Amino acid sequence: MTNRLAKSQSLYLRKHAENPVDWWPWSEEALETARREDKPIFLSIGYSSCHWCTVMEGEAFSDDKIAQYLNEKFLPIKVDREERPDVDSIYMQALQMLTGQGGWPLNIFLTPDDLTPFVGGTYFPVEPRYGRPGFLEVLQKIRGFYDIEKNKLNDLKSEMLEGLRKSVLLPEAEDLSEEILQKGLEVSTAIISDRYSQQSFPMIPYGQAALQGTRFNFESQYDGNQICLQRGLHLSLGGIYDHVAGGFHRYTVDATWTVPHFEKMLYDNGQIVEYLANLWSAGHQEPAFKRGIIGTIDWLKREMTAPEGFFYAAQDADSFTTSDEAEPEEGAFYIWNYQELENLLTSEELSELSEQFFITSAGNFEGKIVLQRKQAGELSETLENSLSKLFELRYGAKPFSVKTFPPATNNQEAKNNNWPGKIPAVTDTKMIVAWNSLMISGLARAATVFNNSEYLELAVNAANFIIKNQWVDERFHRLNYEGKAAVMAQSEDYALFIKALLDLQQASITSSNTNYWLETAVKLQDEFDKFLWSLEASGYYNSPSDVSGELILRERNYIDNATPAANGIAVANLVRLSLLTEELYYLDRAESALTAFSSIMKKSPQACPSLFGALDWYRNQTLVRTSEAEISSLITHYFPTTIYKVEADLPKNSVGLVCQGLICKKPSLSKQELLEHLEQSQNRWTK
């Protein structure tokens, strides 16, 4: 017997289709039913590759007693946060206000009349454990509170609504000064230098902002170059990277970058590819960075690229070790035991592997081994051959012969297919515009830095799929399930795809289709402005004006998390568009948005690194007009707030013009002078 979620396109929602819980998807019908029956709403939000979401699905949501009570006393609604990040954002903020912390699964209770949250939590076990009460007891107490404590409930609602409404109001604007920019870039540098956290996340929005700051001459207590280099080394050498088959895991559960939380998210990998390529172009030409990029793009081609050209969303952390298992095991596809290594490798190979990787018979993860490198540099041919043997054990064939590896799209496929090697983790095969855009940008930058046409072709194919399939009735859409567009695009989809289009325009600037990418970006920006720009406050709302009626408020995303904030990316796009089109209203809009967010940038610089990246674009925007040949040599360097234009009609005897916003420097009479003018423009710090 299945519930309503069996008809959902979302893999995450379908995972709950056989629960005894009478789940509803987020819809006007569900909300109206809760109002009519005066049932508090139990809103549960997660995503397909979330480990503890999977645990709770198999425990509390599969328990008959819990389901019976939940169905009788509440209106249970399931939301895939990857489908509706606007819903997730509002209630994650509410959960943090209620409990002081957040995470997924996000489980929160709403009043049916106005959708106000009044109690919330994350993982709830069936029976009391881990210092957490049993879920049935939680439900009984919450329903009792809802029925009996009406005055307290109303007071709590008023306080919560006031808090949420205040959260979208920003203080008066500040000046967009160099001092604000310097502080913001330094704070990002400090954040990625912190060695005291219990877990290790990529935090690429902070890394990109810190890297942008390395070109300036301001005095600082931080060695930004060394810190950015170290972040790249942690990523490329640590257990967060799959040294056998490429691709980066979500994060590590320790401070030493050793044991990952094993899911692989497209959005992490796209950002990391771009960051490592930028590090390389900034002069940090560490072989491990190049190996990480090559391996990740190999993984992308092999396991994450649909036949139609777009990229899949994610791979689970958990997988089965045998087809007889009831539940998958975290990391099973990626970890090794010492006996496997002894049986597979010669003594000389195992000895060299142990010299370069942290390998002991006791292991470093529950008696098993997660591969983590000890030092940077090239890996020897012997080591690469040993890693190829591990690849063959995992995939059932040698790396060069596995061009594509078909995804398991659910647990039954994973268990029932006759895999030649290990049983793989489940892949969520939906297409998300924002996440594809991050990978397109990463590929475009890697293609430019390493002069690799294959990387650019991958990016172009994905972008073309989005352009051809995601506009329905003249409106841009966020998701694609099996060839069908779904869910209106949100601010991150607009902002990140416009960025991707501009990155493609620059990566293909010497080709015939460069105008196509710019024209598409302009078209999409027009739609973005029409449906999501805030006329009253400036900046972009999370969701369009015509589809946000069921939400209790409209937010403007400016806080960076695992992905960059939409408004930070959007402002940088506006500056780039103003340089490429010479239309100054884009620059006016960028200034308006930055002014709107300037108070939060001054007060909480740790929250918004992408806005500081955008402020850098606004203050240090540089346009280089020169020939195709000169662009080809300059564009591989790291000049992060520069746009290139092919210019045939240059002043006599000059090789190019460098323009700082609306002012051009004197014509450059030689290649060396052009480079010097560009470097000066990118580092025009007054102090």
Can you tell me about this structure?
With 687 residues, this protein is an alpha+beta fold. The protein contains 25 helices and 20 strands. Strands 1-3-2-4-5 form a five-stranded mixed beta sheet, with helices on both faces. Strands 13, 14, 15 and 16 form a four-stranded antiparallel beta sheet that branches. It is globular and about 85 Å long. It starts with 10 loop residues before the first helix and ends in a 5-residue tail after the last helix.
Cα-based radius of gyration, to the nearest Å: 26 Å
Query: What is the tally of helical segments?
Result: 25
Low-confidence stretches: none
Share of residues in helices: 40-55%
- Shape field: globular
What is the oligomeric state here? single chain
Q: Main sheet, how many strands, which sense, barrel? A: 5 strands, mixed
The strand order across the widest sheet is: 1-3-2-4-5
Termini distance? Answer: 70 Å
Instruction: Tally the beta strands.
Output: 20
Percentage beta strand: 5-15%
Structural class: alpha+beta
Mean pLDDT: 93
